[in-house]
Specification:
CATH class of the largest domain: Alpha Beta
Helix content: 25-40%
Strand content: 15-25%
Largest sheet: 7 strands, parallel
Distance between the termini: 65 Å
Shape: globular
Number of domains: 6
Length: 1106
């Protein structure tokens, strides 16, 4: 059994022995005094002895999840179920939480099966309130499928429709299915994974699970059960409740029967009120059918043996003398004295760490502090430590020792991935503008089959000026890109063959080369400079990082190592950290700053707003209060006397870390020994500040933090002029922010504000017009009279504004009505609802930043975008609002930045002189020319510099024209968008491993590959081989292959020409001719008897082998 060592410490327990005997007598019992995680230990020990069916009910979801995490650390997980509520709001149009419904269905499927020996169900009051369908109805909504089972393909398709499954192109969520050829993909509600069912005629030949993101299959199954949505058609004829489904010999654990009954009754009353106010009541199930009545609950539990584990009865059957883990205020000397005392008193001491990293940190700290003290921290993730005085056992947790916040983790295999949805958004749609590198901007009409010398070929149809039509071969997809210009304005479209496009390209290339030269020069200068080389981590650095109140994510660990590697090298660091709002960038900045101070260097933290400067000052000061570090801040709200004193302390070196706005680039400031500059949200600063930063960049370490990096910053990074670290992992259990677009509706405002305040939270209301901000505040006060409201905007004096913000942070107000001064960095974990008035008037990254003010805790957060009617907004505003609503999942800041490029145009941010070029040709085409210029410069003027070019891949683009039938036929892949995506992906593949994986994916997802698609894949190999032979164009038509050898005067090409000449002595039918193209000599070869791609490959292989 997992972690048996910990439970074995209770083997000799007399209290446990008595408890076990009492339960065996079928008596209801009450327990009192199980503090901290001691309940988890006693419960797990009981399970170890009894191996029964167990059902444990807590008052709240949070309590149940902490307990669930504890017992998953102590017991095998395979038969532990979590049973949540299926909806947060039953009487509104809100979508059901798919994962919660999946967990309910999964348990119901298990309980209705025959193989249910021992199990544990962890739940809470709101979840058991909700009625279920009975066993008879459940069987009706289930389909069992087995390998070799005879079942009509069309019949199963129809049955899935009858069970209310939705047919989609791709399966991403429970309740969806997709059909392709002889394959059906299905995601039932009874499984953590979707399934791929392959048919041979009307017989199932194979069943596999598959990954939502990659759509690739993995594990094989002999049989599966498909269960549909168990919430549909719930009525009084088919309802049941959880207590009618679990076994009668199931052991019920309740916090306290009276408390549970009251909670259940209150919940039912609240639902009746919501139902009475609901619009279109006929769409909802009545509360008396939807929920269990308290009397039914009390009657039901009389049929079970019940253990009240937090009994409020004065005469409880069992009382435990257990104390919570004491607070040591991060004083390790005090902690060691405590442990020694416990050991001397005969206690068995356990020091539990959440993970191996924390275990190493703690072990190092204890070793450094006290070499003669021997105790090994062990890995066991439990929520709360405790001292069991009855059994003389103590469990300390590392997170309580470091005063680190410990969150429960939701164990799930199913994740709602955005990747496919993102792909669909980025795919070309009919009517989109595209830029062809040779012909300029046209409009995409769609995929179209065309006849090429008697063979059908798939091509992309583009329309140009004067209705000129260009059919682009699927072999030339590398030549086009989706147009991204400014403000959604339509670009200028020229006629095919117009000189205007060629002139624009030429002018852009010349200009871009100058920009590229400047970029590489800065990079080269930094490479040649020597910076300060920091020492490896000290004991103090380990202690700081171990005391982080949250658990590090994998990305935070990785980026921390990236930063340290940079700082410990002798070259100046210039690293951009791109992480979504609230993903822990500030903590990484604190660690880097402390490392610099620990090496006797000063640190400057540059922020865009006065409030953010103050908040960072508070955050840095709080994190570093136990360490010998001097922190201060500088902004416009400081008096002249205060500013003068701070500047003197900076110049003399008495301030280690200074945080400030643009005031930090004041000419009066002359750091004594500046080692690290941290820049937060660089895109917010003006040109003058950025110019002053350039002079600093050459010889000190720079760390830039951004949630939505400006494109220029992003392109620097992608071109290796800077290093880029991405933080895409959300903190444990931080939920996506539910984003809704609403009108200014008083009833909606009242309901949402009251909901937040009633759950103990706070509300932001953003109104960017100072003129009517007081009027808005009065209106909200009228809607929710009991609320305390504050108003904040830039015209309020500095000290007053700071005081107001601090009071809001300290929960003195319920609602903060403010302008966008809350946009950057304000951290109020208790505020989890935000309204943004006239959201259509804000930029996309601004909206994303404001939304990031909420959702900074483990509570579900809400963002309401208040806009006019959709048809009254500009096209640009519609795009912004739709994008923000769509990207509501965590980690979407990077995607938001990319969408921002498309909507606002990269030109404004890449520099004024580049703006016109980008708007005329589109950002992606501009980027291609920029990359081309970078590569040319690297190969010529900067060829002596070693570049990290992992981010720029130069893929050979051999032009390929043919009359052969090479495509993905409609009967194989029916979806036009999917075919186009696959063609695009195929055109970017540059090695055999990726091509093999692509081929395997086709077989996996669509079945056996048809011959025309096999030849299409072979044509990719042909182009690779051609590139190695200096061939830049192949024409395969009418049984001939014509090869164009590029620049035959170059050394590489001349060697290849020798190979062709050698081959021609063997094959006399080859003909040669020389041709000049743009003053470059080319050799044209004509090779006969080429019937297919395979024979062309064979010829080039033979030439290569000569």
């Amino acid at each position: 059994m997992k972690n048996k060592f910990f439970l074995d410490q209770y083997n000799e327990s007399s209290i446990f022995d008595s408890l076990r005997k009492t339960i065996a007598k079928n008596q209801n019992i009450s327990l009192k005094g199980l503090i901290g995680s001691s309940l988890s230990f006693y419960f797990s020990k009981l399970i170890e002895n009894f191996s029964l069916q167990n059902f444990i009910v807590f008052k709240t979801k949070e309590e149940s999840l902490y307990f669930l995490n504890d017992i998953e650390s102590l017991l095998p997980k395979d038969k532990i179920f979590f049973f949540p509520e299926s909806k947060k709001d039953f009487y509104s149009a809100n979508k059901t939480n798919s994962y919660d419904l999946l967990q309910r269905t999964e348990l119901l499927d298990f309980l209705n099966s025959k193989n249910k020996q021992s199990y544990i169900v962890v739940t809470y009051v709101k979840a058991i309130c909700e009625n279920l369908i009975d066993k008879k109805e459940f069987i009706k909504r289930s389909i069992e499928l087995n390998i070799n089972q005879s079942i009509s393909f069309e019949g199963l398709n129809e049955e899935l429709f009858d069970l209310d499954f939705r047919r989609e192109d791709f399966v991403m969520e429970p309740g969806e299915f997709a059909v392709r050829g002889g394959i059906i993909d299905i995601f039932p509600f009874s499984s953590q994974v979707p399934y791929r069912i392959e048919f041979f005629g009307d017989e199932i030949s194979r069943i596999r699970s598959f990954d939502i993101e990659s759509q690739r299959s993995d594990k094989n199954y002999e049989s599966i059960k498909i269960v549909s949505n168990i919430l549909i058609n719930l009525d009084k004829e088919n309802i049941s409740n959880i207590f009618q489904i679990i076994e009668k010999n199931c052991l019920i654990f309740l916090e306290d029967i009276e408390i549970v009954s009251d909670e259940l009754s209150n919940f039912l009353d609240s639902q009746k009120v919501y139902f009475s106010k609901a619009q279109k009541k006929e769409n909802y199930v009545k509360p008396e059918i939807q929920f269990i009545h308290v009397n039914v609950f009390l009657k039901a539990i009389n049929n079970f043996k019940v253990i009240e584990f937090d009994s409020k009865k004065s005469n409880s059957d069992f009382r435990f003398n257990i104390l919570p883990q004491p607070s040591f205020n991060r004083n390790f000397d005090l902690f060691i004295l405590e442990i020694k005392k416990r050991i001397n008193d005969g206690f068995r001491v356990n020091l539990c760490c959440t993970n191996i990293q924390q275990q190493k940190r703690l072990k190092q700290i204890l070793t450094d502090l006290n070499s003669d003290f021997i105790i090994d921290p062990l890995i066991l993730a439990v929520s709360k430590g405790f001292i069991d005085n009855d059994e003389k056992i103590v469990f300390y947790t590392d997170h309580e020792l470091f005063e680190r916040y410990h969150k429960f983790k939701l164990r799930r295999r199913y994740k709602n991935h955005l990747s496919i949805a993102l792909k669909q958004i980025n795919n070309l749609k009919k009517g989109d503008y595209v830029t062809h590198i040779d012909h300029g901007i046209g409009k995409y009409i769609g995929l179209e089959k065309i006849d090429v010398d008697g063979n059908m070929q798939e091509s992309i149809k583009l329309i140009y000026g004067d209705r000129d039509i260009l059919y682009l071969s699927i072999h030339s997809l590398h030549k086009i890109s989706k147009y991204s210009g400014k403000d959604g304005k339509n670009p200028k479209i020229y006629k095919l063959g117009s000189k205007a496009w060629a002139l624009l390209k030429q002018k852009t290339k010349k200009n871009v080369k100058k920009i590229a030269y400047d970029l590489i020069k800065v990079y080269a200068e930094r490479k040649q400079k020597k910076g300060f080389k920091y020492d490896e981590d000290s004991y103090l650095q380990n202690e700081l990082e171990a005391s982080f109140i949250y658990e590090d994510t994998e990305d935070q660990n990785r980026v921390t190592l990236d930063i340290k590697k940079d700082m410990e090298s002798d070259q100046p660091m210039d690293r951009l950290i791109c992480g979504d709002v609230g993903f822990g960038k500030t903590e990484l900045a604190i660690r880097a700053a402390f490392k610099a101070v620990d090496n006797n260097k000063q640190v400057a933290v540059l922020v865009p707003t006065t409030i953010l400067a103050f908040q960072h000052f508070k955050t840095f000061s709080s994190r570093l209060k136990e360490f010998p570090v001097s922190v201060n801040y500088l902004n416009r709200f400081k008096t002249n006397k205060e500013k003068e004193e701070i500047i003197n302390n900076i110049n003399s070196g008495n301030i280690d870390i200074i945080i400030g706005t643009h005031q930090l680039v004041n000419n009066k400031i002359a750091f004594k020994d500046l080692g690290l500059l941290i820049i937060d949200e660089e895109q917010k600063f003006g040109v003058n500040v950025k110019d002053k930063l350039k002079s600093l960049r050459k010889n000190i370490d720079i760390l830039t933090l951004s949630a939505t990096p400006i494109p220029r910053t992003l392109q620097f990074s992608l071109m290796s002029a800077r290093d880029l670290s991405l933080i895409t992992t959300p903190p444990p259990n931080r939920y996506p922010i539910k984003t809704s677009v609403i009108r200014f509706d008083k009833e909606m405002l009242t309901k949402a504000i009251r909901y937040e305040i009633e759950r103990g939270g706070q509300v932001f209301f953003v109104n960017n017009k100072i003129q009517n901000i007081e009027e808005i505040a009065s209106l909200l006060k009228g809607l929710v009279p009991e609320s305390k409201i504050a108003v904040a905007h830039g015209r309020i004096t500095g000290k007053k504004l700071e005081s107001l913000m601090i009071r809001f942070i300290n929960n003195k107000f319920d609602i903060l009505v403010s302008t966008t001064i809350i946009e950057s960095g304000l951290d109020v974990p208790n505020a989890n609802t935000i309204f943004i008035n006239n959201a259509n008037n804000f930029g996309l990254s601004d909206l994303h930043q404001m939304r990031g003010r909420v959702g900074r805790s483990n509570k579900k957060a809400f963002c309401y975008l208040i806009t006019p009617e959709f048809n009254k907004m500009s096209d640009e505003a519609k795009k912004r609002i739709t994008a923000l609503e769509y990207y509501s999942d965590l980690g979407s800041g990077f995607n938001i930045a990319m969408k921002d490029l498309e909507i606002r145009g990269a030109g404004d941010l890449l520099g004024g002189e580049q703006s016109g070029f980008i708007n005329e040709m589109g950002f992606e085409t501009y980027q291609k020319i920029l990359d081309e210029a970078i590569n040319e410069l690297r190969d010529t003027e900067f060829n002596d510099i070693e570049f990290n070019i992992d981010n720029i891949k130069s893929v050979a683009k051999v032009i390929f024209e043919t009359d052969l039938n090479l495509m993905f036929p409609n009967y194989y892949i029916n979806s036009n968008s999917e075919r186009l995506d696959l063609y695009t992906r195929l055109s970017k593949i540059s090695n055999q491993l990726d091509l093999t994986n692509f081929e395997n994916e086709l077989i996996d997802r669509f079945g056996k590959i048809p011959i025309e698609s096999i030849n299409l894949l072979k044509s990719i190999k042909l182009r690779w081989l051609a590139d190695t032979l200096s061939i830049d164009k192949i024409i395969m038509k009418k049984g001939y292959m014509i090869c164009h050898i590029k620049n035959i005067m170059s050394s590489k090409a001349s060697i290849n020409v020798q190979m062709f000449l050698a081959y021609s002595t063997i094959n006399k039918n080859i003909s040669f001719r020389e041709k000049k193209v743009e003053n470059v000599s080319k050799l044209i070869l004509r090779i006969p008897n080429i019937k297919n791609v395979e024979s062309a490959l064979e010829v080039l292989k033979n030439i290569r082998s000569n």
